[in-house]
Amino acid sequence: MASVLWRCCCRSVGSHRPEISCARNRFLVSPVLEERRQIQYLQSWVPGTRACRSRGTEAFCFSTSSSLFFPKDYSLFWRTSPGFHYIAERMYCCGKAHNNEKNVDPFKLGQKDLKNIYEDIKKELFVSTDELKDMCEYYFDGKGKAFRPILVLLMARACNMHFNNCREMFASQRSIAIIAEMIHTASLVHDDVIDGSDSRRGKSTINRIWGERKAVLAGDFILSAASVALARIGDTAIVSILSQVIEDLVRGEFLQLGSKENENERFAHYLEKTFKKTASLIANSCKAVSILGCPDPKVHEIAYQYGKNIGIAFQLIDDVLDFTSCADQMGKPTAADLRLGLATGPVLFACQQFPELNVMIMRRFCLPGDVELAWQYVQQSDGVQQATYLAQRYCHKAVAEISKLHPSPERDALIQLPETVLTRTK
Amino acid sequence: MGKVSVADKMRIQTRFQSKGYSGRVSSEELEARHCEENLSEGFIYDSRNNLQMRGLVVLLISKAAGPSKTDDLSLQHDMVSGIYSSQRSLAEITELIHTAFLVHRGIVNIGELESCDGPMKDMQFGNKMAILGGDFLLANACTGLAHLQNTKVVELVSSAIGDLVQGIYYENSNLPEESSLTDDIGIASWKEQVFLSHGALLAKSCQAAMELAQHDTNMQAMAFEYGKHMSMSHKLNSDLQPFVKENAGNTSAFSLNSAPVVLHQEFLGREAWIQQIRETQLKGRLLDFAKLQEAIKTGQGVSAAIDLCRYHGNKALEALQCFSSSEARSALENIVRAVTRFP
Question: What confidence score (pLDDT) does residue B36 get?
Answer without folding.
Answer: 31
